[in-house]
Amino acid sequence: MDPTLTLNGEAASGDLTFTYGVEASAAPTTDVVSLVKKVAGSVSWSGEGSTITADISKDMDEDYSSLDITGSVPDQDLELTASGIATNTVQIDTISASKKFGMDSGDLTVSPTFYTAGNRGQVEVAYSTDDTDITVTVDNDMDKKASIAKSFGATKVAFDYSADEQTIEIDHSLDSTDIKLTVQGDSQEVTITQQLDDDNKISPTINRDGGLAITWERDLGDDNSLTTTLTKDESLEIEWKDDNWTANLNAELDGTSIGDVSIHASRDITF
Q1: What distances in angstroms separate CA 7 from CA 34, 222, 226, 231, 245, one per listed residue?
Q2: How far apart, in whole angstroms, are the C-alpha atoms of residue 271 and residue 269?
Q3: Could you say which of 151, 153, 160, 243 would form a disulfide bridge with 131 (CB–CB 3.0 to 4.6 Å)?
Q4: Which residues, 6+ apart, have CB-to-CB distance to 234 below 8 Å?
Q5: Which residues does 245 contact at the CB level (< 8 Å), separation at least 6?
Q6: Partners of 248 in the beta sheet?
Q7: Of 104, 97, 32, nearest to 70 (Cα)?
């Protein structure tokens, strides 16, 4: 068992907002520095409706840091992003942009992306109305992906296509019950979600191979909750949210035998 503790904090000064996070092992030791597993931080500037955010994170087992930069100009419906790694120098791996065009019948969004490795790129075109979403992605090699989602009131239908697989999802809601059917190749899965009362919801999931998972969600009030998911012959997961604290327990299962158990706790801190 390797209990993990995460601390998150936030502070603001003028147009700047700073956040940080530290993930550390909770095992007893006198070498406090060795407990740190991951550190992360970000700085965000906001002014005249536009924002720029830089995020950096480092896994202590790696010799580099991950870097993400995003910019948004809402007045122009424009977003720009770049990501890469930082060692002694900064290397940008991905650059992308997204521009939305308002139309009488809906919104058209064009999002080109460039990958510096191999000089590769792709373009995503999305069209959205009140009840329909269509997205098509094409890359250098003319490989295509497409998704279509359509709402028919209480019933929603979604179809995803790529050269490797196709997925159909049908979701129907009726009063306090929701039924979702997912078909992907030879795999079929059904999830039935039942709102038992104001505080309790249960969701069993059954697949074609006989797999079974049951999720129970309990509302504890004041945005606090307890969620338990039991997956047959696989795992038991428990998440407890209490004020600024979130605790997670994950236990591997093999029949009635319990394997490895991991515990993780995190807290949000605002200055």
Answers
A1: 16, 21, 20, 29, 9
A2: 7
A3: 151
A4: 213, 252, 253
A5: 265, 266, 267
A6: 239, 264
A7: 97
Cβ proximity of 268 and 19 under 8 Å: no
CA distance 155 to 149: 11
Residue 179, Cβ density class (10 Å: 0-12 exposed, 13-18 middle, ≥19 buried): middle
Lowest mean pLDDT among 6-10, 21-25, 28-32, 111-115: 28-32
> Which tokens hold the place of 262?
């991991």
Residue of 2 and 132 predicted with greater confidence:
132
Confidence (pLDDT) at 228: 97
Which one, of 253, 244, 213, lies nearest residue 230 by Cα? 213
Q: Rounded to an integer, what is the distance from CA 20 to the centroid of its chain?
A: 19
Q: Provide the whole-model pTM.
A: 0.73
**What is the domain partition of the chain in residue ranges?**
1-96, 103-172, 196-271
CA angle 224, 226, 227 (to 5 degrees): 130
Question: Which residue is associated with the tokens 């003319």?
Answer: 142
Q: Cα(152)–Cα(130) distance, rounded to whole angstroms?
A: 11
In angstroms, the Cα distances linking 18 to 61, 144, 250 are: 25, 39, 31
Q: What is the token pair recorded at 216?
A: 């129970």
Q: From CA 200, how far away is CA 60, in angstroms rounded?
A: 40
In whole angstroms, give the CA distance from residue 114 to residue 121: 4
Q: Is residue 159 within 8 Å of 167, Cβ to Cβ?
A: yes
Closest CA to 38 of 17, 55, 54, 53: 55
